[in-house]
Protein: Patatin family protein
Amino acid sequence: MPDTNRSSQTTAPALVLEGGGFRGMFTAGVLDVLMERGLTDFQSVWGTSAGAMNAVSFKSGQIGRTMRVMLAFRDDKRFMSFLSFAKTGDMTGGEFVYDRVQNELDPCDNRAFEENPVPMWAVASDVTFGTAGYLPVCHMPEDAQKVRASASLPGVSNIVDIDGHRYLDGGTTDAIPFGVALGLPGSRAVEGHVPASRALVVVTQDRDFVKHGTTEQMVLRSHRYDSFPYYIDALRSRAERYNACRQQLWELEATGRCLVIAPEKPVTVGVMEHEGAPLLDLYLQGRRQAEARLAEIDAFLHPED
Structure:
């Protein structure tokens, strides 16, 4: 039976957002400029980890929200800290981030989110099978747990259970999900998704970055996931797959199928950054990148104009 979802493609590009904890400030800067300029005509939005958090504010049209949240709560022990890890098993305070912040302190515009017809998927890693899970984020705040699953870092987060599946951070299995967004050979077919013809991709490491897998080795040495052999395999191979993924991305960019926005220089902001100045600087870097390439982005979104 033919797969009609993958055989036909839409003309609008997909928007694909890499994660990286507080490196997501770069992405926030890029997206705020796109929203300010009305460059929001995407076929779908895909976010991994912090990219999923950015995607929520983009879909709800809330300019500045991700930047505000990261700056306002960067040094709040309820937001991300070893104290939170000691108390709850989560480095990121799940209830604080996905309830108090999401619904009270800097709430998502849930109505605008739902009225925006662009579908969104958050990428998480299925711990049982060691594969990527593409979770549709359709309703807020009901689907906030899917974003939480996407951003739950291995080794310092509790596993998130959703519909009988156990999930952790999507970066382990599909850090930059342009393959599924474009329906590339070997990618998974996602229910309800028609592959896009092109993708605007925002990454949070500079173009020369090479991943060495140091963080994954630390997680493996903890033996925390020894009962999940497929997930262990995914952790072991992550650096190699990530570097190959980026190489494929540059090749697609050379053909014009992807437009990539990346930091111009190595990013020194850590996954858990508590200083405000480097975070604000990274946000401004993202804004400058987007502003410098506005004409190029506009032409990529509207090639027939």
Q: What stands out?
A: Strands lie at 14-17, 44-48, 120-126, 131-136, 160-162, 165-169, 199-202, 258-261. The CA atoms of residues 40 and 305 lie 15 Å apart.
